Amino acid sequence: MPALDLIPRKLPQQSRSRETMQRVLDMAETLLVELGVDGFNTNILAERANVGVRAIYRYYPNKWAILVELVDRSYAREREWVGHLGALKPGDDWRNAADRMIDGFFAGASRSPSYAVLRAACQVSPQLREVEARNVARFEADVAETLVALGMADEPRRLRIIAQIVIEVSGRLIDLALRADDPAEAGLLLGELKRMLHDLLGPHLPD
Q1: Which of the chain's ends, N or C, has fewer CB atoms near its CB within 10 Å?
Q2: What does the chain look like in DSSP terms, one character per residue?
Q3: pLDDT tens readout for residues 101-141
Q4: Which domains, from first to last, does the chain contain?
Q5: Which residue numbers delimit the HTH tetR-type domain (predicted)?
Q6: What's the half-sphere exposure (Cβ side, CA atoms, 13 Å) at 1?
């Protein structure tokens, strides 16, 4: 089976076209939450966004290219949720900063209905898994760079592994907190995540 084309055909240049594509992508997120990946298709999207199917295909070759765009948009939002990692420097209270990043991410994900749907889709869809891996690698690089800025002096391999653990453990426990029916349980999960990160990073960062 030939590989699917997941790259947008072109970017809209005129402001009206950009506004139309923004509306299409916003509606795509809504439909993804309503219908799931299997139920989502370009015909329904065109109808609900009030545009022609040809207008969508002018920019996206198939529904998977649209979903890739949504995954990339989601990761851009996630980077905003954790704040400006690059602003941290030696001497900053890294424990407090880590706690605020966890709280910020959880709050942002809680307000985004498409977050959990896209994350689940990336776990089961070969078309999206590679995109998620690319974005996770960027997140890990950001974390590693921040740890160095805060004074971590471990050799590169250990630094990379620590950054991977931070991202993997944080993602899993935040997912559990988002699925918790009881807000108190979600709070306990986030509290345990903070404690785990403090214990993981404490031996490597100056107080």
Answers
A1: N
A2: -PPP--S-S----SHHHHHHHHHHHHHHHHHHHHHHHHH--HHHHHHHHTS-HHHHHTT-SSHHHHHHHHHHHHHHHHHHHT--GGG--TTS-HHHHHHHHHHHHHHHHHH-HHHHHHHHHHHH-HHHHHHHHHHHHHHHHHHHHHHHHTT----HHHHHHHHHHHHHHHHHHHHHHHH-SSHHHHHHHHHHHHHHHHHHHGGGS--
A3: 999 999 999 999 999 999 988 888 887 888 899 999 999 99
A4: 15-65 (1.10.10.60), 69-204 (1.10.357.10)
A5: 18-78
A6: 4
**Among 113, 85, 108, 110, which Cα is nearest to 97's?**
85
Q: How far from each other are the two terminal CA atoms of the chain, in whole angstroms?
A: 55
